[in-house]
Amino acid sequence: MASPLLILFSLPLAVVLYHLFYRLRYRIPPGPRPWPVVGNLYDVKPVRFRCFAEWAQLFGPTFSVWFGSTLNVIVSSSELAKEVLKEKDGQLADRHRSRSAVKLSRDGKDLIWADYGPHYVKVRKVCTVVLFSPKRLELLRPIREDEITVMVESIYQDSAASGKSVVIKKYLASMAFHNITRLVFGKRFVNSEGEVDKQGQEFKAIAINGLKLGASLAVSEHIPWLRWMFPLDEDAFTQHGVRMERLTREIMQEHTLARQKTGGAKQHFFDALLTLKDEYDLSEDTIIALLWDMIAAGMDTPAISVEWAMAELVRNPRVQEKVQEELDRVIGHERIMTELDIPNLPYLQCVVKESLRLHPPTPLMLPHRSNADVKIGGYDIPKGSNVHVNVWAIARDPKSWKDPLEFRPERFLEEDVDIKGHDFRLLPFGAGRRVCPGAQLGIDLATSMIGHLLHHFRWTPPAGVRAEDIDMGENPGTVTYMRTPVEAVPTPRLPADLYKRVAVVDI
Fold first, then answer.
1. How far apart (Å, rounded) are the C-alpha atoms in residues 93 and 433?
2. 292-349, pLDDT tens digit by residue?
3. pLDDT tens-place string over residues 245-304
4. Does residue 428 contact residue 452 with C-beta atoms inside 8 Å?
5. pLDDT at 175 over 90
6. DSSP letters of 354-419?
7. CB neighbour class for 398 (10 Å; exposed up to 12, middle 13-18, buried from 19)
8. In this structure, are residues 396 and 122 in contact, taking their beta carbons and an 8 Å threshold?
9. Which superfamily does CATH assign the domain made up of 2-499 to?
10. Contact, 377 vs 25, CB < 8 A?
11. 247, 199 in Cβ contact below 8 A?
C-alpha cells in the first residue's frame, strides 16, 4: 500500500523539480504559472489563438505555456515571426508528432508531419516543382472553374424562385469536396442520379474518422507518464489505415489500367505521383500519405476562407458593392468570370487579402519543434520545445496595421503586401521551409469562388437579421470554422443562362 501512495505523492514533486531545473538551466520566456502534472492545459481557453493573444498582453510577445511536460513558446509579433520562420528556421523546422499523428502520417512519411531532412526536402520538391507548378495549375484550371459553376447553379436552383436564404457553407463544402477529389484522384464521386457514390461516401467517412482519431488523445499526449491510463486504440488506427489503403489502392488500380489502355497519364496529382514514383524514389506509403495530405489541406481550408470572406461582405455592403462594380466593369453581364480575369480585378484581390488577414484558416499554424537549443527574442528555447506563431494576433497588431479590427480592403491598394510568406505581418500560408506549397492554388481558388459568388448574386442578411448581428465567433480547433454558419439571401444579378454549369471532362 505504501508504494502506490509514495508514487502518487512523488509525482507532483518530480514535476516541480523538473520545472525548477528548466528555470535554472534556461532563461525561458515568462508565462502563466503551470500546475503540477498538467501544466497550463486547463488554463487555456477553448479558442486558443484568442487566449494566447490575451496572454501576450500580460506576458509580452514571447511567452511560454506548458502542455503537461512539454514546453510551448508562443510568439505574437512580426519581428519574432521573422526570427522563427526565417532567421532561426533551420533549428525550428521539425514537427511534434503525437501518437495519432505518427499513425496517420505513417510515422512522418508524408509532408505535413515529416521532420525537416532529406525525406521532407524530396517530397516538398515533388509538390513545388511538379504538383503545384504553374503549368499544372493552369492545366487543372478548367476543373476548378467547372466545380464553381456547379456551386453557382445549385445556389440559383435552391433560392432564385423563392428568394429564401441559404447556408453558404453547404455549397462551399460541396464545391471543395468535389474539387479536391478531382484534383487529387481525377474523378468526381457522383453516380448517375447526381448523388455521392459508394467510393465518395467511403472517402468522406475516412476523412471524418481521421479527424476523430487525431483528436481522441489530445490531453493524454502531453503527459507521457500518464499514457498508460489512455492506451492507443491500435485496432481503430489499424482499421483506419486499412480503409485508407484499400480505397487508395482501388483508385490506383483504376488509374493503372486506364494508363495502360490509353498509353498516357492525366494531369491530376495521383497520376503525377505514379509517374514520378521511380524518378523520386517514392514508396507507396509516401504516395498514399501525400495524397491524403492534399485532401486534408484542400477539403476544409478553401471553404473556411471563403465563408469568412462572405460573412464580412454581407456585413459590409459598401465593400460588396465596390467589388461588384469592378466585376461589372471588367467582365460585364454577358459572360462569367474565369481565373484569367483575376489580374484585372485588383479590388477583389484586396478583399481576399483582407479576409485572410482577419480570419487566417490556421491562426496558430502547425507548431514548429526545435531540433536544437535556440534563442528567440532573447529567451532560451530548449531542444524539443514547440513554437507557435500566432498569425491571427500578428495580423491584428495595431503596431503593424492601422485600424486593425476594421474590414477595409483598401489598405492593400495603399500598400502592396505579400501573403505568401515574404511579409511577416501577414502569414495565412506560413513562411520559410514549411510554407504551404499550395498557397497559389489556395489564393486563386478563393479569389475565383468569391468573384463568382459576387458576380452572380447580391448577398443580404436574412429577413429580421441585422448585418451587425451576424456571429463572427470561431469554433475551437486547429482551423477556424465559423461558430455559426453564415446564412444570407442571394439575389441573382445576371441573365438566367449564365447560371448553368459549364461542365468539363476530367483532364
1. 7
2. 888 888 888 999 999 999 999 999 999 999 999 999 999 999 999 999 999 999 999 9
3. 888 888 888 877 777 777 666 678 888 888 888 889 988 888 888 888 888 888 889 999
4. no
5. yes
6. HHHHHS-SSTT-SPEE-SS-EEETTEEE-TT-EEEE-HHHHTT-TTTSSSTTS--TTHHHHS----
7. exposed
8. no
9. Cytochrome P450 (1.10.630.10)
10. no
11. yes
| pTM for the structure as a whole | 0.92
> 3-state DSSP call for residue 116?
coil
Do residues 65 and 33 lie in contact, with contact meaning Cβ atoms separated by under 8 Å?
no
* Cell numbers for 13: 514533486
Number of alpha carbons in the 13 Å side-chain half-sphere of residue 459: 30
What is the grid cell recorded at 487? 446564412
Asked whether the beta carbons of 294 and 284 are under 8 A apart, the reply is no
Q: Are 65 and 44 within 8 A, CB to CB?
A: yes
Length of the chain, in residues = 507
pLDDT at 195: 79
Q: What is the pLDDT of residue 14?
A: 60
> Is-contact 345 330, C-beta < 8 A?
yes
**Is 350 assigned a ligand-binding role in the annotation?**
no
Three cell numbers, residue 147 = 466545380
Specify the amino acid at residue 310: M
Under a CB-based contact definition with an 8 Å cutoff, are residues 164 and 477 in contact? no
Q: Are strands 457-460 and 166-167 parallel, antiparallel or unpaired?
A: unpaired
Return the half-sphere exposure (C-beta side, CA atoms, 13 A cut-off) of residue 224: 4
Cell of 443: 489564393
Of 94, 117, 111, residue with least CA distance to 289: 111
Nearest CA-CA partner of 315 in 430, 168, 504: 168
Distance, CA of 316 to chain centre: 25
Q: What residues contact 216, with CB distance under 8 A and at least 6 apart?
A: 100, 233
Residue 424 φ/ψ, nearest 5 degrees: -80, 5
CA-based nearest residue to 296, from 207, 373, 366: 207
d(CA 157, CA 438): 32
- Is 284 strand, coil or helix? helix
Identify the pLDDT of residue 4: 55
Please provide the DSSP assignment of 149-206 as one string: HHHHHHHHHHHTTT---EEHHHHHHHHHHHHHHHHHHS---B-TTSSB-HHHHHHHHH
CA–CA dist 448, 494 (Å, integer): 17
Collapsing DSSP states into helix, strand and coil, what is residue 459? strand
